[in-house]
Amino acid sequence: MMRSKTPRMNDMSIRPIYATDWPAIMAIQAQCYVELAPESLGVMQSKWRTSPTSCVVFERQGRVLAYALVHPWQRGDAPSLNTEISGQIDANCWYLHDMAISPNAQGMGIGKQLFTYVVNQAKALTVKGIGLVAVQGAQTYWQQQGFKADITSAKLTQSLDSYPDGACYLYLPLL
C-alpha cells in the first residue's frame, strides 16, 4: 500500500513564538529578503516582546517553516526598518511587520493559512484593521488579500524612506 505524501493536519500547527524558534526565524528572514538587509535579532525580538500572543510561527513536524510578527500600532503609520520598539504603544490597529515563508516551503499554502490565522485572531479581539508595508513586489499579493493603499502622513513617508524603493503602506479594515 502506498502512503500519501500529503502531510496530516496534526503534523502542522500555528503557535506563538518560543525563545528557541529564533535561529529558524532569523534563517528564514535571511533567505526571504534579498532587497533589504535583514533586521537584527534584537529588532525582531522587540516586535515579539511587544505582543507575544500575536507573533506566531507555522510549524510542521517540529520544524519552523514560516513566521508572522504582528504587533499593535497606529493606522497610517509604520515603524522604520531596523528600529526596536518598546513600551506602551498608542495603537488603534495591528501592524503586520513581517510574514515570511521558508523558500523550501513555498507553494504549500502556508502563507494563506498563516494570514487567515492572524486575521481571525484580530477579529476575535475586535482589532479594527491591519496595516503593513509591502516590499519586494508583494503589493499585488497583499491587495489580493483585501489590503488597499491608505492615508499617508509625513511620519509615514519618513518611515518608508528606510525601506527599499517601491515599498508601500497598505491597510486592511476588519470592522
TrEMBL record:
Gene3D superfamilies: 3.40.630.30. PROSITE patterns: GNAT. It comes from the Bacteria. SUPFAM superfamilies: Acyl-CoA N-acyltransferases (Nat). The keyword Ribosomal protein does not apply. Residues 12-175 form the N-acetyltransferase domain. Keywords: Acyltransferase, Transferase. Pfam families: Acetyltransf_1. One of its GO terms (molecular function) is acyltransferase activity, transferring groups other than amino-acyl groups. This is N-acetyltransferase. It comes from Shewanella psychromarinicola.
